[in-house]
Amino acid sequence: MSAYYDAVLELGRALLRALAIGLGLPDNTFESSLAPGRHTMSTLRLNYYPTQAPDAQPVTTDGSVALSCETHVDSALLTILWQGDVGGLQVMAAPVAGQEAERWLDVPAFSDTLVINTGLALQRWTNERLIATNHRVLFTRVERLSIPFFVEPHFDAVLAPIEQLHNDKSLRDPPFEPQTYSTFLANAIKRFKEYQRTDQDDKTNK
C-alpha cells in the first residue's frame, strides 16, 4: 500500500506538469505544492460496496436514478481512480450549446486502467479554466471495490487564481480569494452528507 501511494503520488505530479504545459504555464507551476520531502495531504481511500440484499435500498437518488454514491465533485487537485471491472461510475458530460438536459456518461470499467478526475482545488487554482468533474456511482447489488487516490497539496499551500490565467481576457475575473488548502478543504468537505447531520440524526443513529 505504501509503495502504491508513493507511485500514484508521483503520477499525480507528472499529470499536473502536463496540465500546466497544456495551459501554457511553466511545467513546475504546481510543483511547490507537492514538493518531495514534505508531507502532502494526499489521501488513499478504499471504497467497498458489499453485495446488496434483494430488498436493499440505494444510498440516495438523483432524480429517478438510484445511487450508491451521491452526485458530487472531489475537493482535491486530481483524483486518480482504480475502479475494477464492475462499473457503475458516471461523469457529467460538458454542456453542449442548445442542450439544456444533463448528460451522464458511463465510465468504462477495465481493471488495468486508471480514471483521472479534476477537483475543486484545481478549479480554484486555475480560475475555473479546469472545472471539477461532477460524478456519481449507480446503485448496484453486486460487490464493488474502488480505490481513489486524491492528489492534494501541502496543508499550507496557497490556492490563488494563477496570474497568467487571471490576465487572460477570455476569462471572467477570478471568483476566488487566495486561501490555504487546509482552510479550503475544511470548508469544502461540509458539502457532503456526512457533515450535514444534525444532533437529532446522531441520536437516531445511536
Describe the structure.
The structure is a single chain. The protein contains five helices and twelve strands. The protein has a single domain, classed as Sandwich (Jelly Rolls), CATH 2.60.120. The C terminus is likely disordered. A hairpin with a 2-residue loop joins strand 3 and strand 4. With 206 residues, it is α+β, with helices and mostly antiparallel strands.
Short description:
About 20% of the residues lie in helices and about 25% in strands.
Keywords, please?
about 210 residues; alpha+beta; Jelly Rolls; five-stranded antiparallel beta sheet; about 20% helix; disordered C terminus
Kindly provide the radius of gyration, computed on alpha-carbon positions and rounded to a whole number of angstroms.
18 Å
CATH-defined fold name: Jelly Rolls
Instruction: Count helical runs.
Output: 5
SSE run: HEEEEEEEEHEEEHEHH
The dominant shape is: globular
Which oligomeric form is depicted? single chain
Give start-end ranges of low-pLDDT stretches: 202-206
Q: How many strands, what sense, and barrel or not for the largest sheet?
A: 5 strands, antiparallel
Mean pLDDT metric: 86
Number of strands: 12
Q: Helix proportion of residues, in percent?
A: 10-25%
What is the CATH architecture descriptor?
Sandwich
Proportion of residues in extended strands: 15-25%
Give the termini separation: 33 Å
Structural class: alpha+beta
CATH level-4 homologous superfamily: B-lactam Antibiotic, Isopenicillin N Synthase, Chain
